[in-house]
Amino acid sequence: DAMVIQNPRYQVTQFGKPVTLSCSQTLNHNVMYWYQQKSSQAPKLLFHYYDKDFNNEADTPDNFQSRRPNTSFCFLDIRSPGLGDAAMYLCATSRDPGGDEQYFGPGTRLTVT
Amino acid sequence: KQEVTQIPAALSVPEGENLVLNCSFTDSAIYNLQWFRQDPGKGLTSLLLIQSSQREQTSGRLNASLDKSSGRSTLYIAASQPGDSATYLCAVNGGSNYKLTFGKGTLLTVNP
Predict the structure, then answer these.
(1) Residues A23, A75: contact at Cβ < 8 Å?
(2) Which of A4, A93, A102, A110 to mutate to test the interface with B (most CBs of B within 10 A)?
(3) Min distance B59 CA to chain A CA atoms (Å)
(4) In this predicted model, what pLDDT tens digit does every residue of B58-108 receive, in sequence order?
(5) Is the CB of residue A40 less than 8 Å away from at least one CB of chain B?
C-alpha cells in the first residue's frame, strides 16, 4: 500500500562523511521533490525533478545534490554534511507540476555527529 | 515571494470542542492549498487539498475553506479528540516552480 517510501527512516552520519538518502514511489508520478525541515521550522524545498529535468532552488547549498535514475527512484546526496544539515528530509511526488496534490513519504531523520 | 503565516502557533482545547486554525498567504496567485498533519518526529499526512477554483473541502470532521482574494484559509475541526493532537501545517502551491510554501504550523493539543 505504501506509495512514497523513504529509506532509511533514521540516519546517523559523521561530520563531513557523505551520506545518501533514498526515496521511491509506486504512484508513477512525473515529479519528485526533496524538502528539508529543521526542528520547529516549516519544510523548505531543496529541488525537484520533473521527469528527468532537474530544478534547483536558488538558495539550496551546493553541498546538496540529487539523482533520479528512473521514474521510481530519487536520491538525495549530501557531500559533506555539517552539523547544520541535521534535519528531517521529506520526499514528495505529484503527477504533474502545477495544481496536482503532493504526496509525502514518512521522512528520513538525519543526525550529524 | 510567497509567505505563509499560521495563527495561532499553539492551541490547547478540551476534548469535544470545535476549533478553527487559520492560515494566511501573501500572493493570491496560487494553484491550490493543502492542509497537512504532522505527528512528532514523523512525516506529513495530507488532510485536504483545495484547488484555487474551490471554496471549501470536507473530509469527515474536517472542513477547509479558501478565500483566495483575501489570502486566507481556515481548517475547522469538529468535536475534537485527543488523537487529533499534532502539528497542522498549511501549504500553498504557486509560482513558476510549482513548489509548496509552508507555514510554520499550529501545534494542537486536545486534552481528555
Answers:
(1) yes
(2) A102
(3) 16
(4) 999 999 999 999 999 999 999 999 999 999 999 999 866 667 899 999 999
(5) yes
